[in-house]
């Protein structure tokens, strides 16, 4: 029997995995969640013998049960190939007191590649399985990294178009350059005068507009989402937590069944939710350590039980985590209501109407697996500098937020024995300015961004990643900028409808 997916806001909406991937978002703004989290049920000794691709099949086949073995293996083979600069795909590196699970070896050197290299293939396969005739239009709001990873994943994939909206003044210069230099006949990149949350709200509005859907359908198009709300993004992210656990076991770092902690630098709550799903599949993860930057909505939520987005939006040196509405948290909220779509929908209505909601004490009690904390800008920079000085390892700003929060966790809880994995979400080369500033601001102040790239390569003894080499001399191909309330007009213009 197939594992079905239900909407977090409507108990009657139930679809297969491939339908959930195609739709992206459920009706009424709900998210699709699997009716239950399947058990992994594979002996650890067998898991350690698996490649990344084989692990991916073991995990994903349990979630995407309406895909045939051939279909899923084909998607996996096309995704996790030579685009990654290491055969391991997600290598583990030990530094000081934790294992860094490096999720940045794909084509855009950030962790979004882990899911976005496979999503286009899952989507095309889903379209074929469901006999979709329309062309699929991917609408994406990005805080920086998703945009480029989605563009790279979908560029020139037949039967698809992709439109990416990013906050014009809310991404790093290298992130922006990566996006606006994207080639492909089916890609479109737009900067908006607004922040990420406005971009995301604009996209969500278009998704849930039935009139727009009709206009699109008449023109032979339908929307789908590459944002981390798509179950096709979430499921591939579970894989590397399973893989990391098996690798630690293979290295003799842990014995069968030993717990590990996972520290995840968090924005939209997708990556850490994947770790939570891995735990629910049977991987012994003790604490899920949720690390925020100064936009610490999640820290406040875990401490008080109140989620409140009514606050100043802060631009930090970890822009991919500058988020006040962590969309994927809804999947956890739904779960702690006891899968009560009506109760969850009421909370989400409060979030959209008043900008806040409070969970009940019974719900809050179910969050004990999570530990939340945050790092200030100074703490983040300090951790980059200290780790570099102690070990020579250079981490990016997002990973540094996680490292700083992990240090707080160790100090506060005295849990210093549990082996710990830090999700290392971006290459330092993607955020060179902030990283080099953290190491020695005075020395690097006057260097250009690309000058800093070479300097970083020298001091860290790491070659400049191909992704950066490629954009050094590339031409900007996209220069569209619009207001947050003009996004729909821009989409129609690009698709030449109306
Ligand atoms: C997207 C992103 C994050 C946040 O991940 P979520 O799944 O949104 O919580 C952290 N670090 C980097 C580098 C990212 O690109």
Short characterization:
The chain has 22 helices and 16 strands. By secondary structure, the protein is α/β, with parallel strands linked by helices.
Task: Describe the structure in your own words.
The chain is an alpha/beta fold. The chain is built from 22 helices and 16 strands. Strands 4-5-15-10-11-14 form a six-stranded mixed beta sheet, with helices on both faces. The chain has a five-stranded parallel beta sheet with strand order 9-6-7-8-16, sandwiched between helices. Strands 2-1-3 form a three-stranded antiparallel beta sheet. α4 runs antiparallel to α6 (119-129). Pyridoxal-5'-phosphate binds next to α12.
Key words describing this protein structure:
alpha/beta; five-stranded parallel β-sheet; single chain; 498 residues; binds pyridoxal-5'-phosphate; 22 helices
What's the story with the biggest beta sheet?
6 strands, mixed
> What is the β-strand count?
16
| Rounded radius of gyration (Å) | 21 Å
- How much helix, percentage-wise, in residues? 40-55%
What is the topology?
Layout (H helix, E strand, L loop, with lengths): L4 E3 L6 E2 L1 H7 L8 E3 L9 H5 L3 H12 L5 H11 L12 E4 L2 E5 L9 H5 L2 H11 L5 E7 L3 H10 L5 E8 L5 H8 L6 E7 L2 H12 L2 H9 L2 E5 L5 H20 L9 E6 L4 H12 L3 E8 L4 H8 L1 E3 L20 H8 L4 H14 L1 E3 L2 H5 L4 E5 L2 H15 L5 H17 L5 E6 L7 H13 L4 H12 L5 H7 L7 E4 L3 H9 L3
Parallel strand pairs: 5-15, 6-7, 6-9, 7-8, 8-16, 10-11, 10-15, 11-14
Antiparallel strand pairs: 1-2, 1-3, 4-5, 12-13
The structure holds pyridoxal-5'-phosphate.
The site of pyridoxal-5'-phosphate (PLP) has 17 residues, from helix 12.
């Amino acid at each position: 029997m197939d594992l079905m997916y239900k909407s977090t806001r409507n108990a009657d909406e139930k679809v297969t995995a491939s339908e959930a991937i195609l739709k992206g978002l459920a009706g009424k703004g709900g998210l699709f969640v699997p009716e239950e989290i399947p058990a992994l049920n594979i002996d650890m000794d067998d898991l350690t013998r698996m490649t990344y691709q084989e692990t991916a099949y073991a995990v994903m086949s349990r979630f995407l049960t309406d895909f045939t073995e051939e279909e899923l293996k084909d998607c996996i083979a096309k995704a996790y190939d030579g685009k990654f600069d290491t055969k391991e795909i997600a290598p583990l590196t030990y530094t000081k007191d934790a294992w860094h699970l490096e999720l940045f070896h794909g084509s855009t050197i950030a962790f979004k590649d882990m899911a976005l290299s496979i999503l286009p293939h899952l989507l095309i396969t889903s379209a074929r399985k469901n006999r979709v005739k329309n062309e699929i239009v991917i609408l994406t709001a990005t805080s920086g990294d998703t945009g480029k990873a989605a563009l790279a994943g979908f560029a020139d994939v037949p039967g698809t178009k992709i439109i990416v909206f990013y906050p014009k003044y809310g991404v790093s210069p290298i992130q922006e350059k990566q996006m606006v230099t994207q080639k492909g006949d089916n890609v479109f990149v737009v900067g908006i005068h607004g922040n990420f949350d406005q971009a995301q709200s604009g996209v969500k509005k278009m998704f849930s507009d039935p009139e727009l859907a009709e206009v699109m359908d008449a023109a032979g198009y339908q929307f789908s989402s590459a944002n981390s709300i798509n179950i096709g993004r979430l499921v591939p992210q579970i894989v590397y937590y399973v893989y990391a656990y098996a690798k630690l076991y293979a290295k003799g770092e842990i014995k069968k069944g030993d717990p590990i902690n996972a520290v995840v630098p968090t924005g939209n709550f997708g990556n850490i939710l994947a770790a939570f799903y891995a735990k629910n599949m049977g991987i012994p993860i003790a604490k899920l350590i949720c690390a925020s930057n100064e936009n610490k909505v999640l820290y406040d939520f875990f401490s008080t039980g109140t989620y409140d987005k009514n606050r100043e939006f802060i631009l930090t040196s970890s822009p991919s985590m500058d988020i006040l509405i962590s969309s994927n948290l809804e999947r956890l909220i739904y779960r702690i209501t006891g899968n009560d779509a009506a109760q969850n929908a009421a909370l989400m209505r409060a979030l959209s109407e008043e900008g806040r909601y409070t969970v009940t004490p019974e719900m809050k009690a179910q969050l004990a697996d999570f530990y939340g904390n945050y790092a200030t800008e100074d703490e983040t920079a300090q951790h980059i500098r200290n780790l570099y000085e102690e070990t020579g390892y250079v981490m990016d700003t997002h990973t540094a937020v996680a490292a700083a929060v992990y240090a707080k966790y160790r100090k506060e809880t005295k849990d210093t024995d549990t082996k710990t994995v830090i999700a290392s979400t971006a290459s330092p080369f993607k955020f060179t300015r902030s990283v080099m500033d953290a190491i020695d601001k005075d020395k690097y102040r006057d260097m250009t961004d690309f000058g800093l790239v070479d300097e970083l390569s020298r001091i860290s003894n790491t070659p400049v990643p191909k992704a950066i080499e490629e954009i050094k001399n590339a031409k900007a191909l996209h220069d569209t900028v619009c207001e947050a309330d003009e996004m729909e007009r821009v989409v129609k213009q690009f698709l030449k409808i109306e």
